[in-house]
């Protein structure tokens, strides 16, 4: 079955090497971990990053022509190796190889334990404790399989298969539909996405719509959220699981049984990335490279444009989505390193002082220096035990204060030490636009890096793509892999079952997007943004200094009280209802501005909107007067120039 829509494909029209079937001894799937992202567009999508270092937004708009958010697809490829371990190249339908894919994903959030940070005492209380109770002692172990019996709380479509016929091109899209019952007498269907292929038979994984709801209530009348991260009877449609492939060829019919079977790859379906081209100082790629560092490094030594510049330039990019970063690293700030790029790229004595100063401001990894539990050290982000402690804040917190702050990995820190000491080489900036422009032996590692560098690796509290299980070495295959498997990153799916990587995340995911709104992951969920009009694109008089005023990205959603004891999370409720109307942050360049800037685009929610249980749409608007009708309460809200004149609200939401 063919769809009318085809996404932009940077690989389109590129020929592939003539890989002879009889030379193949082993095949592998890349990227080893693919990242899909939810969106409410049912048809349109775009391919996730396949080359590293690109900060331009995806081809076209973030929304389809109807205004719905496009999903990010994770595309998987197959690479062939000879008996010596040499990469022969990618194999697909264009060379008559038949790719038979199997995928198994699940959502197990509702069956998991109550949220707890990695360094907190393990909680053994369950989400939805009255449904499918578990007998015996509970451990709080993130690899616990005893919770698999809680089937009423698990959405599991099972292992599903797809292939594109190499001769006819025919393929049938495969829906990934499971059921969720919760405490209700009957289960409801939940879609976690679908499987497709591209024109060469590669796997294309599309996640769900991003919808979250309580099965106790009608879909169009969601209740107020009254839990921080553990909402009872709620379900969302993010997921994770494994990917497998079998390959055949007419010239070698028994190929599937003769070659060494591939290691399973992994797919994560996550929330949208609303800040495009802006990355976290530590990504999942950094986490994995650090875990595997004793047996594998992408390259020898320290390379400026691979190891150092992504972090330094990233601080400037973060200044467009976070006020604290703007103060320290924005245009004109001392911590804006863009003007120093050329000088810093070379290990000369000219920049020795600056390089040493940069290193002195980095927080040591693994919480080993407890005196660095302050915002003067970088990154200025929260850690795996909760909110960063601001100057003058209460330091009497659960656990060690240093665990409230993020840090680079041990490997990242070592490379910055090399940078400080002048022991590095310049290397080349990332400029390649299509993966096929790399040599065949480089393509697997570049696919892995491209897909993972836009993820959140630290902090994971709870996290965006994966919770803190993603930092544990036990989650990965670290032994028995071929020496020439580059990169060797593989999730161990014997212990990490489908749904395990996401089950410790926020339920629903929108609660995390509401509550983690200061210094958590502005590269995915912006905090403070430049909200402007299209005039900025044509107004050559606009300068960086005039764009210092920032607005809250989530303006228009109610504020959740800081006192969590009240069990009232109105911002989380509004995020569930209106996440798809928030804006995307993308890079633009202006004639009179020396560096790129990031501004908000495609916002569908009017700023100044006061949310509640009223209609999304204004039914009357003239001369500053706005009237909204309540679909639930049977009342109205009247404003003038965004000031509330009259409003009917539930008692708990009184003005």
List keywords for this structure.
seven-stranded mixed sheet; alpha+beta; five-stranded mixed sheet; 655 residues; 11 helices; single chain
Structure, described:
The chain is α+β, with helices and mostly antiparallel strands. Helices cover 14% and strands 18% of the residues. Strands 1, 3, 4, 5, 8, 9 and 10 form a seven-stranded mixed beta sheet that branches. Strands 2-14-13-6-7 form a five-stranded mixed beta sheet. Strand 4 and strand 5 form a beta hairpin. The longest helix has 15 residues. The chain is globular. The C terminus is likely disordered.
Beta-strand segment tally: 22
Structural class: alpha+beta
Main beta sheet, described?
7 strands, mixed
C-alpha termini separation: 53 Å
**Estimated helix fraction:** 10-25%
Using only CA atoms, what is the Rg? 25 Å
Shape: globular
Strand percentage lies at: 15-25%
Write down the overall mean pLDDT: 89
Q: With helices defined by DSSP (H or I, 4 residues minimum), what is the helix count?
A: 11
Which spans of ≥5 residues are poorly predicted at pLDDT below 50? Answer: 612-655
């Amino acid at each position: 079955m063919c769809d009318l829509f085809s996404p932009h494909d940077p690989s389109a029209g590129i020929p592939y090497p003539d890989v002879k079937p009889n030379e193949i001894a082993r095949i592998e799937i890349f990227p080893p971990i693919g990242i899909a992202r939810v969106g409410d567009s049912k048809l349109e999508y775009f391919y996730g990053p396949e080359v590293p270092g690109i900060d331009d937004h995806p081809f076209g708009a973030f929304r389809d022509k109807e205004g719905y958010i496009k999903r990010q697809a994770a595309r998987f490829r197959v690479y062939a190796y000879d008996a010596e371990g040499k990469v022969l190249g990618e194999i697909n339908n264009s060379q008559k190889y038949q790719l038979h894919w199997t995928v198994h994903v699940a959502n197990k959030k509702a069956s998991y334990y109550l949220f707890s940070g990695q360094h907190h005492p393990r909680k053994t209380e369950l989400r939805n404790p009255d449904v499918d109770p578990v007998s015996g002692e509970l451990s709080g172990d993130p690899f616990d399989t005893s919770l698999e019996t809680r089937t009423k709380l698990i959405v599991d479509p099972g292992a599903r298969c797809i292939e594109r016929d190499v001769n006819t091109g025919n393929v049938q899209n495969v829906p990934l539909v499971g059921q969720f019952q919760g405490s209700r007498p009957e289960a409801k269907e939940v879609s976690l996405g679908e499987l497709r292929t591209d024109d060469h038979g590669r796997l294309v994984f599309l996640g769900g719509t991003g919808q979250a709801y309580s099965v106790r209530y009608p879909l169009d009348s969601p209740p107020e959220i009254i839990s921080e991260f553990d909402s009872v009877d709620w379900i969302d449609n993010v997921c994770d699981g494994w990917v497998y492939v079998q390959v055949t060829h007419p010239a070698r019919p028994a190929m599937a049984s003769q070659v060494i079977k591939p290691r399973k790859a992994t797919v994560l379906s996550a929330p949208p990335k609303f800040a495009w081209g802006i990355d976290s100082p530590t990504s999942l790629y950094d986490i994995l490279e650090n875990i595997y560092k004793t047996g594998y490094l992408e390259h020898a030594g320290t390379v400026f444009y691979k190891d150092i510049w992504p972090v330094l330039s990233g601080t400037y990019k973060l200044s467009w989505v976070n006020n604290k970063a703007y103060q320290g690293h924005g245009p004109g700030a001392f911590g804006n390193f863009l003007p120093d790029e050329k000088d810093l790229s070379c290990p000369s004595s000219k920049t020795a002082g600056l390089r040493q100063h940069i290193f002195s401001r980095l927080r040591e990894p693994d919480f080993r220096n407890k005196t660095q539990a302050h915002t003067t050290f970088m990154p200025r982000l929260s850690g795996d035990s909760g909110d960063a402690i601001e100057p003058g804040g209460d330091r009497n917190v659960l656990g060690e204060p240093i665990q409230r702050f993020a840090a680079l990995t041990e490997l990242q820190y070592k490379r910055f030490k090399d940078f400080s000491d002048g022991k590095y080489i310049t290397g080349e900036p990332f400029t390649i636009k299509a993966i096929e422009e790399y040599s065949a032996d480089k393509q697997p590692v570049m696919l892995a890096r491209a897909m993972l560098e836009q993820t959140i690796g630290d902090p994971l509290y709870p996290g965006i793509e994966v919770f803190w299980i993603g930092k544990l070495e036990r989650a990965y295959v670290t032994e028995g892999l071929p020496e020439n498997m580059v990169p060797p990153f593989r999730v161990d799916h014997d212990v990490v079952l489908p749904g395990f990587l996401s089950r410790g995340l926020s339920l629903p995911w929108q609660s995390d997007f509401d509550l983690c709104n200061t210094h958590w992951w502005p590269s995915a969920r912006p905090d403070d943004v430049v909200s402007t009009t299209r005039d900025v694109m044509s107004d050559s008089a606009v300068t960086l200094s005039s764009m210092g005023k920032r607005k809250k990205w989530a303006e228009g959603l109610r504020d959740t009280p800081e006192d969590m004891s009240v069990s009232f999370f109105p911002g989380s409720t509004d995020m569930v209802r209106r996440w798809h109307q928030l804006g995307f942050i993308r890079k633009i360049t202006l004639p009179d501005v020396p560096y790129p800037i990031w501004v908000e685009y495609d916002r569908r929610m009017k700023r100044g909107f006061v949310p509640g249980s009223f209609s999304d749409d204004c039914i009357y608007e003239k001369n500053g007067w706005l009237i909204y009708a309540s679909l639930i309460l049977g009342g109205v809200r009247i404003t003038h120039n965004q000031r509330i004149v009259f409003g009917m609200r539930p008692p708990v939401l009184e003005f």
